[in-house]
Write a structure and sequence with these properties.
There is one protein chain. It is elongated, with a radius of gyration of 35 Å. The protein has 19 helices and 13 strands. It is mainly alpha-helical and about 550 residues long. A hairpin with a 2-residue loop joins strand 4 and strand 5. About 40% of the residues are buried. Helices cover about 40% and strands about 10% of the residues.
Length: about 550
């Protein structure tokens, strides 16, 4: 037997042996546990790829994994760098076509915070899942659609909260139905828009800007008065070869308004150097966006930095993500569950006329559906060309020759007239008011008539500028006869001649009222009479008034 002292001397060695065994046996086990925990942590942590939206550095997927950094010289785009308002109200309404009770308002997207966060989180989670599966880091699923590798001229901010919420909304059943209806409504105009976008080498996404501006309706009018497919305000047409008069409103002319809108967008881009900023400026105004960029204090000049700074009003900040969401879908409609083709597009050409033309007569004689002719010439207030030397009428390309033949036949009636016999108490202004026809048009149809003196029993030809006006006129006077006839021979000259009539000022008259009666301007009357446009006129005063005959 060992003594107590021997056992005590052996004890430290036994403890060291047991401790060493535990250390060498336990470390591999702990190492495995740590590796397992790391694997679980790695699998559960979302991996935001370089293709997802980042407020500080927007790097987006372009073609086949190529990325685009806004404002950089390496931006891959078919847009040529050398080369106003949604006018929606605060609720996102697109306005209602003039003369229609049917609203053109599209789906208004005002997602709440939870929906916005959910849409962005879903996209990020879907992307992370793809990365975990070993697929490309640039693979992105947005609103349930694989969008990696899609080519856009304006990069899409995949993963941006509001952009993703807008896409999710428009890809609902109701949203897709609305988009399809709008694109079918666009068929008379979209071929021309596509052609001009290509001619100017602009981003193809701009083709779809009228979708959120007006629902692609030339008759759309917002609460603020913006009009046409591009929603121009009355004070924003200067310098773009557009006019507004008693006879027409060029904001509804799909050709002139398209030319103007695309030029305005290109000017915005040339000034700001960023397409999303240029689009925001179309909504809010170039001055407002330029001031906001300066106030943001950002080192980079791009829309998404401005978005994060919140230095611009909410409407234009939401306008750009909404537009990009719609454009991202309509650039690839079949991928998003929409038809590849919306229907047959209209191809238009223009023909000139030196006579006034009623569209209903031209449609009948040239074999053109009247509704198509009205869509193409929506700028005409009465569906009649104005009383000017020449006017351009838009007709379907396949009917161009037929239309030219009708317009060149001076014996062919192109206007509807009512034959009116003057009775006691009549004046020319009273007759004009009865038939809702400008005095200038009556004088043009009746050469030699004195505006201040018409005789009882005298026969006048009253141009009918709408079906309702002729009917209302006939109901007030039983000495009328409606007829469709050629323009009087004095009006068949190749070009109209300017003549003058003498007008005697009556009680209640003003220069502007007289100018309106004769479809002329206050400045023209003032110039011809040697007076100031602000001059006071008196009863009985005789004025020389220019009239086109």
């Amino acid at each position: 037997m060992t003594s107590v002292g021997e056992r005590r001397g052996f004890a430290p060695f036994l403890c060291l042996f047991i401790l060493g065994f535990l250390v060498f046996w336990g470390l591999p086990q702990r190492r495995c546990e740590l590796q397992a925990q790391e694997a679980v942590s790695t699998a559960s942590t979302p991996k935001t790829t370089a293709s997802l939206f980042s407020p500080s550095s927007l790097v987006l997927p372009f073609a086949g994994g190529v990325t685009h950094q806004p404002g950089s010289d390496q931006a891959t785009s078919s847009a040529n760098p050398g080369v106003n308002p949604t006018n929606l109200d605060e609720n996102g309404d697109l306005g209602t076509p003039a003369g229609s009770s049917t609203s053109t308002t599209g789906p208004t997207v005002v997602p709440d915070a939870s929906n916005v966060q959910s849409a962005a989180t879903d996209t990020q989670a879907q992307s992370s899942s793809a990365a975990a599966d070993g697929t490309s880091l640039n693979t992105i699923v947005s609103a349930g659609v694989l969008v990696d590798g899609l080519q856009y001229d304006i990069p899409m901010p995949w993963g941006h909260e509001e952009f993703e919420a807008q896409r999710a909304y428009y890809l609902t059943s109701g949203g897709k139905k609305w988009l399809q209806a709008v694109m079918e409504r666009a068929l008379p105009y979209i071929a021309y828009v596509e052609k001009k976008v290509e001619e100017l080498k602009l981003p193809k996404e701009l083709i779809f800007l009228p979708v959120i501006e007006s629902g692609y309706s030339p008759f759309a009018v917002s609460r603020s008065g913006a009009t046409g497919i591009w929603q121009f305000m009355r004070n924003s047409i200067s310098g773009y070869d557009m006019a507004i008069s008693d006879w027409l409103d060029d904001r509804k002319d799909f050709m002139k308004s398209t030319d103007a809108a695309l030029l305005k967008l290109r000017e915005n881009y040339n000034t700001l150097g960023d397409w999303p900023l240029a689009i925001a400026a179309y909504n809010a105004g170039l001055g407002a966006v330029s001031r906001a960029v300066k106030a943001s204090g950002s080192d980079t000049t791009d829309f998404w930095s401005l978005y994060e700074s919140k230095k611009l009003a909410r409407e234009p900040l939401s306008y750009v993500p909404r537009f990009l969401a719609v454009a991202s879908i309509l650039r690839y409609p079949t991928l998003h569950g929409l038809p590849d083709e919306w229907g047959e597009k209209n191809d238009w050409t223009t023909v000139e006329t030196s006579r006034q033309v009623d569209l209903s007569i031209l449609a009948e004689k040239a074999g053109i559906p009247l509704d198509i002719l009205k869509c193409g010439n929506a700028e005409l207030r009465y569906n009649i060309t104005p009383p000017v030397d020449t006017h351009t009428v838009k007709v379907p390309a396949e009917k161009a020759e037929a239309a030219k033949t009708v317009l060149e036949d001076t014996n062919s009636p192109l206007m509807n007239y009512t034959i009116y016999k003057v009775k006691s108490g009549d004046t020319l202004s009273k007759i004009a008011q009865t038939y809702k026809t400008p005095i200038s048009l009556i004088l043009k149809a009746n050469p030699g008539v004195n505006v201040n003196k018409i005789a009882v029993g005298q026969v006048l030809m009253i141009p009918r500028i709408s079906g309702d006006s002729a009917a209302s006129g006939s109901s007030k006077a039983d000495n009328t006869t409606s007829t469709s006839t050629s323009t009087p021979s004095a009006n068949t000259n190749a070009s109209a001649k300017l003549s003058y009539t003498t007008y005697t000022v009556k009680k209640g008259d003003s220069l502007s009222k007289i100018a309106s009666l004769f479809s002329t301007s206050v400045s023209a009357i003032a110039k011809d009479n040697g007076i100031s446009p602000n001059s006071i006129i008196r009863i009985g005063q005789k004025l020389k008034v220019p009239v086109k005959q």
